[in-house]
Amino acid sequence: MTRGCCRAVLLMLLLSPLTGIAAPRVITLAPHLAELVAAVGGADHLVGVSRYSDHPPEIRGLPSVGDAFQFNEEQILTLRPTLVLAWGGGTPLSEIQRLRALQLPVEIIEVQRLPEVAAAMRRIGQLLGRAEAGREAAEAFEQRLEALRVRTGRPVAVFYQVSESPLYTLSDAHVASDVIRWCGGRNVFADAPVIAPQVSREAVLAARPELLLYSSPTGERPWRRLEAIPAVAQRQLHHIPADWLTRPGPRLLLGTERVCDHVSAVRSARSVPVDSPPGQAAGQ
């Protein structure tokens, strides 16, 4: 059987009536979308996910339909989804158009700012027929998020290191920058022209961050001797798991809590005289 004929047969099967199957069959095209589906109680509806979808643990054995940018159309058709969730701003438009041309029901979910996580939960809940669960998950997220918000005071200059070699960070186009701002911080590379700019150590030195966050466990190594950076001089270098800041899903709340704790510590240290004994900033 030729490739074209095989695809035609799969498409025919997809469009045939699904008798006796009432539950949604969902495929997600980015890891955070699988997390959002699970957050509204829809993990059992997932039949396929994108590569690197590893949370919550129960989805790890699901078929992978590709990475975040290229997908196996034949496998997707074989899984017979009733809903495909695409990543707004991430899934290439060409891939979305290709899937829609196969008459697959593709919905785009976009999260650019922290409050949009709750909006995504509500939307996915509606799409899965779990509107109440989506609303409850969204409200719980919003309540915890609002409790963390910092609205006053001089912003803390923050550098977020995505990778150390080469040295990459994130601009204001990424939701991680919104997390920093939410906590009363200022992303020192917020104005970069691309979402994930490569920067130099000299540029970081010139930005003089008061807080340096990094995504890999060894991310502080390039900075330990650079005491000219306020964050290094004040020992404000901290690891935050990458998934807590780079995936625009429910676990952004964990990242926000951690970032807010560190920003708060920097603010507290500002009020302590320079010649104070060690530990006074922590209330010791």
Automatic annotation (TrEMBL):
The keyword Zinc-finger does not apply. It holds the Pfam family Peripla_BP_2. It comes from the Bacteria. Residues 1-22 form the signal peptide. Keywords: Signal. Residues 25-271 form the Fe/B12 periplasmic-binding domain. The keyword Signal applies. One of its GO terms (biological process) is cellular response to iron ion. InterPro entries: ABC_Transporter_SBP, ABC_transptr_periplasmic_BD, Vit_B12_bind_prot. This is Cobalamin-binding protein. It comes from Abyssibacter profundi.
